[in-house]
Fold each of these.
Amino acid sequence: MIARVLIAIGAAVLAGLLALPGPVWPLLPAQSLEVEVAAMNAVYGRLAAIEGGGGSQVANDRGDSALQALAGMDVDADELAVLRYRMRNFSSALELVFLWRLADDPEMLHSATIPKPRGGDQTFALDQLPNWQGRVVEIGFGQIPTAMQTPPGTPFPPFSIESIRLESMSLSNALRAQVDSMSALRPWAQRSINSLGRELSEAPRRSTLVPIVVALATFILLSLILLRRRALLPVLAAVAVVWLLVDWSWQRQLLAQNRLTERTVSTAPFADVDLAGVADRFRAWYRQRSEAPKVLVAAPSAYTTYRMIWHLLPIDAATWNVALGRVDQLVPGTLILVPADLVDRVVAGTPSDSTLTPQRSRRVHVLDEWQVIEVVGGGVTP
């Protein structure tokens, strides 16, 4: 019986290897390049070396984001297609972005959101990115605030970058990258939640999930054939375990994203007293109108815009950006709630496809530092 199980395992491994696109990877990486963290430059934010060679600390006392880069590199993207990094105390309110430039177009900056570090080594397969190819001359890390989590300009807690390493693809790295991709928490996206990895605009050039599925299917099939009824219970148990792991990954994502949603729409994390007060007064004025026109919000940042839309509920409000490029199609009577110092974003003397003209708009109400602009007769002047 043991011999038959070993035969099934061996055949499953072989099937998985044959399912790999391109050449078969070695078990361990054949090449590795240690990136000197201390040599990176702070494009914005601060980067200070930690005593004792423990990497560098990243901070920005006057902003909500940071960027570190290392130029002068010469890396073959096809040879070194795995990124391994380790960071400590990375804020949950930040997203991590990997950036790089290619020798054939050094003016073009490529970027991709990668899993947040969780204390230990994190592995990311760069060969799934369509633009990771050719000669790489510069790499960097960017930290940006997670959408709707912090008001603009709020400094983030300092964190440290301990190590960065580029390695060649191997079976061990492919497995680590697949596990990290499935277990990494990601913010909401306009795509389905699934176990196929991070949402990319293009299909990965080399997927490690397909060989894993092929190997599992081969093992289950051969187990049923070689062991017959004696293997039925263990095989069903193995299928149940795999299914539970996949379901756990999906459920973990959904729970994390629901927590993110609750934090986003609640008023507890940040003081929105001013916005809430303006929204309350606007609702009171809005209810007095005989009609219920569409409301658009134009604010200096996405954070302020969406917080105001939340406070305006149950009024049907949207962002002013939905009207950009087709302002002339706005329905007469549409109301635009905008801070007084940004009225010129909505109303301008020169006709365009993204602003109203004074002849086609009028101020109908003032709420402290906010104003309500009404569309009169359409959008821009012909």
Amino acid sequence: MKTPARRIGTARIMMAVLFVAAALSAGRARAAEAPAEAARPVDVASLRAERVAALAEALRQAMAGYRLGQNPFEDVQRCQLAQAAAQVEAATTPEGRIAVLKASVASAREVERLTQTMLKSGVGYALATHEAKACRLRLEIELALERTPAAPADVAALRAERMVALTETFKQANADYIAGLGTAGDLQRCQLALASAELEAAATPEGRIAALKAAIVGASASERDAIAKVKAGLGRTLDIQTAKALRLRLELDLALERTTAGPADLAALRSERAAVLTEALKQAEAEHKAGMGTFANVQQCQLALPRAQMEAAATPEGRIAVLKASIEHAREIERDTLARLKAGVGMPLDCAEAKAGRLRLEIDLALEQAKAQARP
């Protein structure tokens, strides 16, 4: 059987977990902020439309690479969810968002069938079929939540089905790893996706706290594993940094869920996480330029860093300054991906995702400036 390409490192997986699981929820939340952006509606709408187009191209490239066995299924899943989230955000009405999600679910079903066909043909792998199902269920959950009023029983049933799918995904990743067919990265990605689903499904504060505690245990174990591998000469510094950033993100969420942490404690965690992500982005860029890492590592650090810095910023002016600096850096990264493509050492998928990443930051800046202008 032909073995599909799996160019997935631990660092990439850690950052992907932060984005993929929350991508559509963020899209719905931003769509709900429409009244706050009245000061610059044309600019924001134009940027959103351009980003949707960039992500459509990214998904096309990811699908083409997956069919040829050049890209892992994770590329398809990441682009699929990002495109759906961007389309939901760009929609101006509930009906528009529902239409987007219906189309996304239909597309996800086609991708799911493709993974099954490739598996039966001997050119795919079982893990992709499980992850494709979990991805489709993620979209179905968002569709159920978008409908007004959302039917709690339907949402609960979909979440339960997705939990089963993610459990099977984790079992398959574990079996592949034991058999030498998969990577520790695959196993960690599936483990963290399952933990994220458990947190989402928790119905009480106590349940969410328990889920976060369990996720922190898993993230701490991954961080220790990354440190051990670096000491043994088998790992990368970037793996340690992204594992630590994830653990700090979970600790922040736990502190906020408990509502017992003081402002100073939260500020310290936010500051530490921003510092870790700053180093992670530097490391990811250095590895990518040296041909040792993937562009996905760069972009996911690039988008995580400004969010961490904005969260740590105390004023609107501080958040705007963070976004302006981040956009300049994103433009440099975008130019670098284009130069690498022209030189024959880059990928069209990287260029499309770099453009989408820069547009994400420009949209966030436009929204933040609109909020600042709307304040008395």
